[in-house]
């Protein structure tokens, strides 16, 4: 039962606005992606990373990613035919913990098709129409903000990713594609520090948290 880590790291990081790709900007004294690689490598048998064009080094654990995130995941998974469990984790979440990855993998081992990191809603959530008139207030007690890691039965994920490019482009996470093929997915509560680096402020915040950790 090979557990393979899949790290989409092929994005451009436009909202961060750095010189190079976001996965390789310095954070806490090393390239951002390396924090995630360390944690995944401590749990998985192997880790495959999808990188931007020009960042592959010829090793079998680096593949060139696609135009959208899910295409990058598909490309990396295609390089790991031995995987029976795939753990997808964004390079942009350097504060992932080993315990969180293990909890997701354990849920898949126990029979779920997918187990995904998530945070409970702390804000009140409302739906508004295009004119921004509030339509309703949602029950936040049943709502979760979805993150990575996301662990899957690898065959189910392969089937879920075998869809046209426009479907891949519209997917904001891999679990939604697994849900679309009828897969069972559960949420695993993540520690509050599992933030995503999107903007320069996030990068500062992540670096401060990583400093505090070490
Ligand atoms: N990603 C990827 N391939 C893409 C797009 C994104 O592998 N074609 C990866 C990113 O490298 C990142 C993760 O998916 O680790 C989440 O994407 P996001 O946070 O949106 O990163 P970027 O796409 O790089 O940032 P932006 O949207 O601001 O350009
Ligand atoms: Mg993006």
Brief overview, please?
Helix content is 32%, strand content 26%. By secondary structure, the chain is of the alpha/beta class.
Helical percent range? Answer: 25-40%
Nearest-integer average pLDDT: 97
Would you identify the regions where 5 or more consecutive residues have pLDDT less than 50?
none
Strand order of the largest sheet: 5-4-1-6-10-7-11
User: Cofactors and ligands present?
Assistant: cytidine-5'-triphosphate, magnesium ion
Shape: globular
For this structure, the CATH topology is Spore Coat Polysaccharide Biosynthesis Protein SpsA, Chain A
Give me the Rg, rounded.
17 Å
Number of domains as seen in the coordinates: 1
Give the terminus-to-terminus CA distance. Answer: 33 Å
At the first level of CATH, the class is Alpha Beta
User: How would you classify the helix and strand content by structural class?
Assistant: alpha/beta
Q: How many strand units?
A: 11
Major beta-sheet overview:
7 strands, mixed
Q: What's the SSE pattern? A: EEEHEEHEHEEEEHHHEH
CATH superfamily: Spore Coat Polysaccharide Biosynthesis Protein SpsA, Chain A
CATH architecture: Alpha-Beta Complex
Helix count, DSSP H or I runs of 4 or more residues? 7
Q: Assess the beta-strand content as a share of residues.
A: 25-35%
What does this structure look like?
- This protein is α/β, with parallel strands linked by helices and 214 residues long.
- It has one domain: Spore Coat Polysaccharide Biosynthesis Protein SpsA, Chain A (Alpha-Beta Complex), CATH 3.90.550.10.
- The chain contains 7 helices and 11 strands.
- A 7-stranded mixed beta sheet has the order 5-4-1-6-10-7-11, sandwiched between helices. A two-stranded antiparallel sheet has the order 2-3.
- Helix 4 crosses helix 6.
- The longest helix has 14 residues, at 200-213.
- The model has no long low-confidence stretch (mean pLDDT 97).
- The structure holds cytidine-5'-triphosphate and magnesium ion.
- Cytidine-5'-triphosphate (CTP) binds at residues 8-16, 22-23, 50, 65-69, 72, 90-92, 198.
């Amino acid at each position: 039962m090979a557990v393979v880590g899949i790290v989409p790291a092929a994005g451009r990081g436009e909202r961060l606005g750095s010189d190079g790709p976001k996965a390789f900007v310095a954070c806490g004294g090393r390239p951002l992606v390396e924090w995630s690689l360390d944690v995944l490598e401590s749990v998985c048998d192997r880790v495959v990373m999808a990188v931007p064009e020009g960042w592959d080094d010829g090793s079998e654990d680096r593949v060139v990613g696609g135009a959208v995130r899910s295409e990058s995941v598909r490309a990396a998974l295609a390089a790991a035919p031995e995987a029976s469990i795939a753990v997808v984790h964004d390079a942009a979440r350097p504060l992932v913990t080993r315990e969180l990855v293990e909890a997701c993998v354990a849920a898949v081992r126990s029979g779920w098709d997918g187990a995904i990191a998530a945070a409970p809603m702390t804000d009140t959530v409302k739906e508004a129409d295009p004119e921004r008139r509030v339509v309703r207030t949602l029950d936040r007690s049943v709502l979760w903000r979805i993150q990575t890691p996301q662990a899957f039965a690898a065959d189910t994920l392969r089937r879920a990713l075998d869809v046209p490019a426009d479907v891949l482009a519209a997917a904001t996470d891999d679990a939604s594609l697994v849900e679309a093929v009828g897969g069972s997915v559960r949420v695993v509560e993540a520690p509050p520090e599992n933030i995503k680096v999107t903007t320069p402020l996030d990068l500062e915040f992540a670096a401060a948290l990583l400093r505090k950790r070490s």
